[in-house]
Amino acid sequence: MQPIEFQPIGLIHSGYxxxxxxxxxxxxxxxxxxxxxxLPPYGNRESVRGLEMASHIWLxxxxxxxxxxxxxxxxxxxxxxxxxxxxxxxxxxxxxxxxVGLSPVRLDGIRFEGDRVLLYISGADLLDQTPVFDxxxxxxxxxxxxxxxxxxAGRIELLDLPVHFSEQAEHFCSDxxxxxxxxxxxQIEDLLRCDPRPAYQKxxxxxxxxxxxxxxxxxxxxxxxxxxxxxxxxxxD
Length: 237
Prior knowledge:
Blueprint: E1 10-14, E2 33-38, E3 56-62, E4 74-75, E5 86-87, E6 100-113, E7 116-122, E8 131-137, H1 140-143, E9 163-165, H2 167-180, H3 184-193, E10 209-213, E11 216-222, E12 227-234
Parallel strand pairs: 9-12
Antiparallel strand pairs: 1-2, 1-8, 2-7, 3-6, 3-8, 4-5, 6-7, 10-11, 11-12
């Protein structure tokens, strides 16, 4: 069979600037919004006519950070502590023969700016500048399967811990929210309750981590009793 070549129809603009810290599944964090900008010649009013009637859409996208990383028949999913291998097709690992992903997201609005078409979405687990190959409306009567099961991942796993902000982090959030109209504190809480830590590091309570969110660096740690946001600073390129 001849190779099949796909062209991106759009690019994602999101607050997730690096892979570490992005929710591992879609729909876990809605406080961090994103925008899908359609590219020419796909970015026109006719191509999205009627899409406003959908509350949610499917996005078929490229794991752009993994294109040159290759693939393996087996992977170590975080759900199994990062120690046990299972088949790549039994996981949602980005390291696949064809590094494509599929995510359902909420469609919050469509905006037209001259020749630009912008789709505002939430619940996305997509890195900034992710190429998107296709959009399809989510159909509740067929896409939702109430009887579906998967023993490996039967429920959402979120940390039920209080989030404590340092004095510096509190002041930074208040100022940022006032200037940018972004619910920064809620966004940080939602992301950290998803527990971005690698499985093999979850017993290292003293370890300090950092994630990039928007144009910021957020330093944090987790122990048995609480999540601590230690410091928030502008990111320096």
